Amino acid sequence: YYFDHFEDLFSFKNARALQTGYQSIRSYFFAQEGRELKFLPSLPNGLDSGKMRLFANHLTITLEWSKREVKRIVMQAHQEGEWKLDFGKKFLSMQRRKDHKLQSTQKVSCDTISLKKGEYAFLDQFRR
């Protein structure tokens, strides 16, 4: 490709193509259907571990995974709400903290999470 072909790639007329490509790549790591959040729904081979930040409707999510399983999630709500969590493989419980340094922890079910506007949730220690 010549450089002028790259300029066309990022022009306004191809904005839809970039959006579609982004959504396709994102779907490997995260999917949202209404209030249901799916983590690592179709992770391709070779991406066994990683970290990424997502901006879902009314949420900022930082997702870390290793050995093809979720290890840590940090969520910040931009609007109060309750979300259903889907990890593919069934986890029975997880640790929830309100501060990343806070030692007092709370073991909770992996089914749903409720957050107030501006509230953070630090999720880790997923158990089967």
Question: What labels would you give this structure?
Answer:
mainly beta, Immunoglobulin-like, 15% helix, 128 residues, four-stranded mixed beta sheet, six-stranded antiparallel beta sheet, single chain
Short structural summary:
The chain is mainly β and 128 residues long.
Please describe what this structure looks like.
This protein has 128 residues and is mostly beta strands. It has one domain (29-127): Golgi alpha-mannosidase II (Immunoglobulin-like, Sandwich), CATH 2.60.40.1180. Helix content is 15%, strand content 46%. The chain is built from two helices and ten strands, in the order ααββββββββββ. The chain has helices spanning 3-9, 15-26; strands spanning 30-33, 36-39, 50-56, 59-66, 69-77, 81-86, 93-97, 106-109, 112-115, 120-127. The longest helix has 12 residues, at 15-26. The chain is globular and about 50 Å long. The model is unreliable at 1-6 (pLDDT under 50).
How is the topology of this model organized?
Elements: H1 3-9, H2 15-26, E1 30-33, E2 36-39, E3 50-56, E4 59-66, E5 69-77, E6 81-86, E7 93-97, E8 106-109, E9 112-115, E10 120-127
Parallel strand pairs: 2-6
Antiparallel strand pairs: 1-2, 3-4, 4-5, 5-10, 6-9, 7-8, 7-10
* Mean pLDDT metric: 83
The assigned structural class equals mainly beta
Distance between the termini: 50 Å
The rounded Rg comes to 17 Å
Beta content comes to over 45%
Task: List the secondary-structure elements in sequence, H or E.
Answer: HHEEEEEEEEEE
Task: State the CATH superfamily name.
Answer: Golgi alpha-mannosidase II
Question: How many structural units, i.e. domains?
Answer: 1
**Strand arrangement across the biggest beta sheet:** 3-4-5-10-7-8
> What is the number of helical segments per DSSP (H or I, 4+ residues)?
2
